[in-house]
Amino acid sequence: MKLYLKEYVYHLQEVIESHWIKLMSVLVVLFAPIQGIMITIGLAILADTVVGIWKSRKLDQQISSRRLSRVISKMLIYQITIILFYMIDKFILHDITSQFFAVEYLLTKAIALTLASVEVFSIDENIKAVRGSGLMEAFKRLIKKSKEIRDDIDDFDVNKF
Q1: What stretch of H or E contains 10?
Q2: pLDDT per residue as tens digits for the range 77-125
Q3: How far is 115 from 122, CA to CA, in rounded Å?
């Protein structure tokens, strides 16, 4: 029995090695519809990490390898979550959701939006800790300034020159 199992494992290994490129091609094609989502979430995690390091330096906090290793686990967990919900969306829920919504992979996109929101809130908290005001306050100031500029443009009279 052990000999048969060894031969089977050896044969399986040979098959995988000989068909590695085909296997990878199938995976790339399977996950092609969500590559943009996965890249976006990866960039959100990267942005949160960069802002977190910036905050640590500004507030003279120690940056440990333990804290930085959490980035790898977070990246893996988020990407696996997206893949899992994509598979559920594609193979289980697609027929149901397509009857009510025109958006493909709605559940996957909702989960991705949730994960991206977590990262944006984390970035906002880090910016607030350093500057005293966060992204929302900066956005409000930008809107107010743009309204002032628009009012100045509306009040501008070309005939005065």
Answers
A1: helix 2-18
A2: 999 999 999 999 999 988 888 888 888 899 999 999 999 999 999 999 9
A3: 11
Cβ–Cβ < 8 Å for 93, 107:
yes
Q: At what angle do helices 35-58 and 106-131 cross, to 10 degrees?
A: 10
Tokens 């409000």 sit on residue: 140
Return the percent helix, strand and coil in the chain, to nearest 5.
90, 0, 10
Q: Where are the domains of the chain?
A: 34-155
Going by C-beta distance under 8 Å and a sequence separation of 6 or more, which residues neighbour residue 81? Answer: 111, 115
**How many CA atoms, within 13 angstroms, populate the side-chain half-sphere of residue 54?**
16
Q: Classify residue 105 as exposed, middle or buried by CB count within 10 Å of its CB (0-12, 13-18, 19+).
A: buried
CA distances from 150 to 73, 154, 155 (A): 46, 6, 9
Q: How many CB atoms lie within 10 A of CB 119?
A: 21
pLDDT in tens, 79-91: 999 999 999 999 9
